[in-house]
Amino acid sequence: MSCVSCKNKIEKNIAFEKGVTDLKVDLSSRTVSVTFKSDKNTIEGLIAAFKKIGYDATVVTETNAGGAEN
Ligand SMILES: [Cu+2]
Q1: Average pLDDT over residues 39-58
Q2: What's the pTM value of the predicted model, to 2 decimals?
Q3: Is 46 exposed, middle or buried (0-12, 13-18, 19+ CB in 10 A)?
Q4: Distance, CA 4 to ligand 1 centroid (Å)?
């Protein structure tokens, strides 16, 4: 994940995953902050969603927002 088209792709796809309420892509740190309702989705579910569009996501922090990067 390193260019604007990746950012757009992530924003267009992950933002519409179940339970996702907020999404912030930071290209410089290659990190995506995802805020989601934990009763509607899981970190595993979101990682699978990233995988579906071609990114290997790993969890950076697991507070309220799950971070994912590639
Ligand atoms: Cu790219």
Answers
A1: 95
A2: 0.82
A3: buried
A4: 6
